[in-house]
Amino acid sequence: MERYEFFRQFHDISITDYHLLTDCLSTRSFKKGEFITVPGQIQRELYFVKSGVQMSYFDTGDKIYTLAFTYFPFLCAIAESFSFQVPSKYFLVCLTDSELEYITYNDLQTVVNQSQQIERLFRRMTEAMLAGMIDLHIELRAMTIEERYKTFCRKSPHLLQLVPHKYIASYLGIDPTNFSKLFNNVIF
């Protein structure tokens, strides 16, 4: 029921609609380092994180750019690949052993067509994701590296123990050496 309460933060769906969605879910386990999606692959499933940490990123060959981290109770996918059923431009990898529930694109479309409440839920979750991305862009442009670090630590302190710091540094747009100094000297 934790997931039900999480969904209700976005839209107050009925328990009946919740079960309409969750009855379509299957479970899949991934090992640390295992890819969920790679560039060129179409994301055919939308994942609901039960456990573990995942990361989306792109690799220019010279540098890795971290885009997002996912963990319970959030959704996990390359959003544009899943939403538009187009090849991904990014990687989605498990940073830890992970257990994910998923629904296929076609099953989700069926559920959304059956329930206006589920459709509203996903619209509101998409809007929240977009707002979060805008907030991150503002943080990256308007905050000092120390402010970015502190904001991240307030939002996701557990990731400091689970995620290699070079990926968090990349996500925050901070040089790994400066990140290390912040980690060792700044109290949040």
Automatic annotation (TrEMBL):
An example molecular function term from Gene Ontology annotations: kinase activity
Record flagged with keyword Disulfide bond: no
Domain Cyclic nucleotide-binding intervals: 9-52
Keywords for the protein's UniProt record, in alphabetical order: Kinase, Transferase
InterPro entries associated with the record: cNMP-bd_dom (IPR000595), cNMP-bd_dom_sf (IPR018490), RmlC-like_jellyroll (IPR014710)
Name by which UniProt lists this protein: cAMP-binding domain of CRP or a regulatory subunit of cAMP-dependent protein kinases
Species this protein is from: Chitinophaga ginsengisegetis
